[in-house]
Amino acid sequence: MEYRPLGRSGLKVSALTFGTMTFGGSGRFEVIGTTGADAARDQLDRALDAGVNVVDTADMYSDGASEEILGQAMEGRRDRLVLATKARNPMGEGVNDAGLSRRHLIAACDASLRRLRTDWIDLYQLHGWDGQTPLEETLSALDDLVRAGKVRYVGCSNYSAWHLMKALGVSERHGLERFVSQQIHYSAIAREAEYELVPIALDQGVGIMVWSPLAGGFLSGKFSRDAPPASDTRRAGRGDPYPIDEEQGFAVLDVLREVAEAHDASVAQAALRWLLHQPGVSTVVVGARTDAQLADNLGAIDWEMTADELEGLEEVSAPPLIYPYWHQAQFVTDRSGPADHWPRRQATAELPASVH
Predict the structure, then answer these.
(1) Which structural domain range is residue 346 located in?
(2) In sequence order, what are the beta bridge partners of 3?
(3) Which among 67, 207, 88, 90 has a CA at the least distance from the CA of 138?
(4) Residue 346 — very low, low, confident or very high, per pLDDT cuts 50/70/90?
(5) Is 198 in the same domain as 347?
(6) Which of 5, 47, 227, 234 is deepest in the core (most CB within 10 A)?
(7) What integer is the mean pLDDT of 34-49?
(8) pLDDT at residue 99, rounded to an integer
(9) How many domains does the chain contain in total?
């Protein structure tokens, strides 16, 4: 297993993180997975044996059942794990049972600690933006949780670029705990993060944790152009949970299949391997409904793509160069440098015929 720094912190995390959204399986999470306590312990054993040291969950997964099952599975090996969870989404019917207010965050943290059967959370993440709560309130509450010893590091998830930069500015201005990581949606067919979130991560030293690296199962290799998804797949069960350009998606799958065949690997492993080569990525969250899926995902760490293979995937999966990047591209050789972190397509992009 490879271990990488989590952003600008001293914490080392495995390149793969064990995700536990499949634990519990109640409500709308049933189609994702229904892993119980015994199977969860077995899967955690397999992940630990592979060198994984990070496990990720959230209070909202199966209304707390994921945390409860993980707490049982961690018994006797808590010290070996970097435990990450999240808060923000509704956990009750009350008007204050959601969001990022001081009241909800502190209550949510205490509830997660009880469910997880632990005294501390290594990485406490904000599960999304809260436009009604001042950042000063949210970040000072996180700072208090760190000072109380309940939390070691803090991060965010699903923030836009300006959300993240504003939060980092507030932390710096008030001397509060700073986000060490952002957990974002990123894959070979979902590269929107490269416009701003990846450059910010590189520039500001914020580690990237990737969620849904297989695009809800689309990049597992089990789908084809000519047939709808099988009824027992996550993609079929949830419809189209993430926007996908299927024409480009199947073109990417064609190249991933070629890469996988060349390395005697699975398509899913090739998709994960591509992410592990991307700048700024600290760790990729992988989960599984079955032991076989988990074993396959963990196998992504055992080989490397060639430069030619990476270039081929870069070409077929490249996102369009949106404004202002197509305009800025004309100056990329003028003042570019390591600190600029340009989206990779900019230096070679074909500019519009008339650039004002």
Answers:
(1) 320-356
(2) 14
(3) 88
(4) very low
(5) no
(6) 47
(7) 96
(8) 97
(9) 2
Cβ-based burial of 263 (10 A; exposed 0-12, middle 13-18, buried ≥19): middle
Cα end-to-end distance, the chain, whole Å = 49
Is 205 found in the same domain as 333? no
pLDDT of residue 241: 60
Which residue is catalytic, options 61, 124, 159, 186? 61
pTM higher than the cut 0.85? yes
Cα 213 to Cα 160: distance, rounded to the nearest angstrom: 18
E runs forming strands in 92-171: 121-126, 151-157
Q: Give yes or no: residues 349 and 300 share one domain.
A: no
Which carries the bigger pLDDT value, residue 350 or residue 222?
A: 222
pLDDT at 26: 83
Give the CA distances from residue 11 to residues 77, 122, 181, 224, in Å, rounded to whole numbers and listed in that order: 18, 10, 11, 40
Q: What is the pLDDT of residue 341?
A: 60
Check whether residue 302 and residue 325 sit in a common domain.
Answer: no
160: domain CATH number? Answer: 3.20.20.100
Q: Is position 3 annotated as part of the catalytic site? A: no
- The residue to which tokens 């720094």 are assigned: 5
92-96 LR contacts (CB < 8 Å, sep 24+): none
Domain match, 58 and 108 both: yes
Q: Sorting pLDDT into bands at 50, 70 and 90, what band is 352?
A: very low
Report the helix count and the strand count for the chain, using DSSP H and E. Answer: 13, 10
**CB of 73 closer than 8 Å to CB of 47:** no
**Under a CB-based contact definition with an 8 Å cutoff, are residues 58 and 107 in contact?**
no
What is the C-alpha to C-alpha distance for residues 168 and 166, in angstroms, rounded to an integer? Answer: 5
